[in-house]
Amino acid sequence: MMAIIAVIIFAVASCGNNQDGAEKLKDLREQKTALEQQIAELEKQLAAEGRDPNQGRKIPAVTAQTMSPKKFEHFIEVRGSVESDNNIFVPAQRPGIVTRVLVSPGDRVKKGQLMAELDNESISQTIREIKNGLGLATTLYERQKNLWDQKIGTEVQYLQAKTSKEDLEIKLKNAQSELDKTRIYAPISGMVDVVTLKEGEAASPNAGAIRVSNLSKQKVVAKISESYLTDIRVGDSVKVTFPVNDLQLKTKVSAVSQVIDPDNRTIDLEVLLPDDNRINPNMLAVLTLTDYTNPSAMLLPINAVQQAENRNYVFVARKNNDAWVAELRDVKLGRYSENEVEITEGIIPGEVVITFGFNNISVGDPVKVDFDNR
C-alpha cells in the first residue's frame, strides 16, 4: 500500500513539474519573440546608419551601375589644312617690265578680267608689221586666185601667193599669243588676295604675281595612318573644328586615297566644306572621325577598371539575401573613348559594377550600394 501511495505521490509530483516546465517554455518563447523584434529593429536602425548589424561597424557606401548594352563609337583626330582649287597664285607667263597693275588686294574680279600688263612694245610693233605684210599678201592672193579661176596665169603663181598669205597668218597668230603672255588675266572669278607686282619692276614667270581666291568649293586635306585604310570610308560623318575661330561643323568624307605614301605610311583624306566666309584657305582644321562602332557594347568609366600586373579587374556587387557583397571580377578591355572603356569579356548585362568607392572595400565585404545608371 505504502508502495502504491509512493507511486501516486511521485506521479503527482511529476505532473506538477511538467506543468511548471510548460509555463516556463511559454515564458521563454514570449521573451524570444520580444527579443527578435528588438533585434530586427536594431538591425534596421544599424542598416539605415550604414553599419554592419553583425559586426557593428559602418558599411562602406559605394556607387554602382547596372550593366546594359549601349552604342559605343571610337573616334580619332587628325589635323589638316584648308585648300581650294579656286585659290590660284597667277604668275606672269614671260619675263618683262610691269607697265600697269589694274587691281589691288580686296578687289573683286571676274574670270578673264585683265589684272596687269607687262611691256609689250616690241611685240606690238612686230604685230603691226605682220598685219601690214598680211594685208598685201592677202590682196595678191585674191588677185592671183581670180586669175587662176579664169585659167589665167600659172598654178605656181597661185600657190606661192596662197602660201605667203598663210605663213603671215600663222606668224600673226603666234605674235598675238606672245602679246597675250604679257598680260595677266583672272583665271577664276573671286577676290584679289595678294598683289606682288609693282609698276616699273621686272616680273618673273617663276613666281606668283597676283593671287585670286574664291571661297567656294573649299576642302580640308589631311593625312592619316595606313592602319585606318579599311576603317575610314567615303561618306562617313566627320566633325570639322577650326581652332582659330572655334568654328565647328559636320560634313562627310569626300575622298580617301587608296595609295599609301611609302615615305610616311599615310593615306590622303579629303573633306569638302560648305561655302562659308569664315573659312579661309590654309586655315588649320581638326577632323574628328569615327573609326569603330559597336551597337551593343558594355561600357564602364575608365576609372572603374583597376590594374594589377597583367590583369584588369573590377568590383562587382552581388546580392546576398538582403545585403550587397563585394566580389572581384577579371575583365578584358576593348576600345577607349574619352571617359569610357569597352568591356569585351567578364561582365554580362544585369550585373552591378562598382564604379566609385571601391578603394575602401575588400572581397567579401558588405557594401551599401547607391545606383548611378546614367
Summarize the structure.
Helix content is about 25%, strand content about 40%. The protein has about 375 residues and is α+β, with helices and mostly antiparallel strands. The protein starts with a helix and ends with a strand.
Instruction: Provide a count of the helices.
Output: 3
How many structurally independent domains? 3
Q: Beta fraction of the residues?
A: 35-45%
Instruction: Classify the secondary structure makeup into a structural class.
Output: alpha+beta
Number of strands: 21
What would your notes on this structure say?
With 374 residues, the protein is an alpha+beta fold. The chain folds into three domains: 1-51; 59-85 and 217-374, Beta Barrel (Elongation Factor Tu (Ef-tu), domain 3); 87-212, OB fold (Dihydrolipoamide Acetyltransferase, E2P) (Beta Barrel), CATH 2.40.50. Helices cover 27% and strands 40% of the residues. It is built from three helices and 21 strands. The chain has helices at 2-48, 121-149, 155-180; strands spanning 61-66, 70-84, 87-91, 96-101, 108-109, 114-118, 183-185, 190-195, 202-203, 208-213, 218-225, 237-242, 247-256, 266-272, 284-301, 306-308, 311-320, 323-336, 340-345, 352-356, 366-371. Strands 1, 2, 11, 12, 13, 14, 15, 16, 17, 18, 19, 20 and 21 form a 13-stranded mixed beta sheet that branches. Strands 3-10-8-5 form a four-stranded antiparallel beta sheet, with no helix packed on it. Helix 2 runs antiparallel to helix 3. The longest helix has 47 residues, at 2-48.
